[in-house]
Amino acid sequence: MNALMYHDVVDAGAEDTSGFPGSDAALYKVTPALFAAHLDAIRRMSATPPAPSARPAPPGLPGLTLTFDDGGASAMRAAELLDACGLTGHFLITTNYIGTRGFVTERNLRDLARRGHVVGSHSCSHPLRMGRCSWTQLVEEWTGSRARLSDILGHEVVVASVPGGDFAPQVAEAAARAGITTLFTSEPTGESRHAFGLSLIGRFAISKWTTPPTAAALAAGDWLPCARQAIVWSAKKLSKRVGGARYLQLRRLLLGHSREVRWGDQG
Q1: For residue 254, what pLDDT is reported?
Q2: Alpha carbon distance 36, 23 (integer Å)
Q3: Residues with Cβ within 8 Å of residue 70, at least 6 apart in sequence
Q4: For the structural domain made of 3-255, what CATH number should be given?
Q5: Which of 36, 189, 231, 243 is deepest in the core (most CB within 10 A)?
């Protein structure tokens, strides 16, 4: 099975109560009812014998990875739904926001780890274009966030995800330098690879419009929905590369960033 990338699990109309506020972030926030329906569809899909021509799925859900980026307070609600299904989540935390409005607290993080969920880094400040950050900032983002989480949890944190979806080789190299061994990217692929001594794992993004059948198909690696995401991803990646700094300006104009948030690559 593939890795799926979630963010927050919040009631409709309450998107700004968890994680980063604003209409752009809200695109990736799902309701508890929709998330529960996703889990049900994925479980039913995994229990269905595959067609002869389909890629076989492992029994149960041993290969399924569900990640939750940003560190919004709704992580605890997502964890409750996962616990009810006997599933484990990977919660990737933007450490500068721990304990602030709409984000998890240190106590929440210890509770998640105690319940068997994985807690990892999503950088300190969440740069939107992390691939364009200086080497010094990259090392500081990974080292600082990993140290903060390790101190809170009382054990070494070695898992992380790239914020903003902007990946570059130096991002992985800096993560490895900081002690990260598994790094989730936003590239929609079911293939994992190794670089700089760490594992790079792609993920398929889940938005508020993702239907339960589509979530199950992405988890199973069905070629059509996976190919659709790959096409959209490639187009977005090109626009970031061509747009440069203007990409952030256009993003703010079209999607309306909240003034409460200062991303790590904005002065």
Answers
A1: 43
A2: 23
A3: 7, 8, 19, 20, 25, 92, 93, 94, 103, 122, 126, 163
A4: 3.20.20.370
A5: 189
Identify which of 245, 265, 263, 264 has the alpha carbon closest to the alpha carbon of residue 21. 263
Q: State whether the Cα torsion 105-88-144-6 is positive or negative.
A: negative
Task: List, for residues 206-243, the tens digit of each pLDDT value.
Answer: 999 999 999 999 999 999 999 999 999 888 776 666 55
> Percentage of the chain surpassing pLDDT 70?
83
Between β-strands 182-184 and 192-195, what pairing exists: parallel, antiparallel or unpaired? unpaired
Domain positions in the chain are 3-255
Residue 32: closest CA among 75, 84, 63, 78: 78
Q: Looking at the predicted structure, is the pLDDT value of residue 262 above 80?
A: no
Give 46's pLDDT tier (boundaries 50, 70, 90): confident
Q: What is the residue-wise DSSP string for 10-25?
A: --TT-GGGSSS-BHHH
d(CA 68, CA 119): 10
What is 41-103 written as a DSSP string? HHHHHHHSPPPTTSPPPPSSSTT-EEEE-TTBTTHHHHHHHHHHHT--EEEEE-GGGTTSTTB
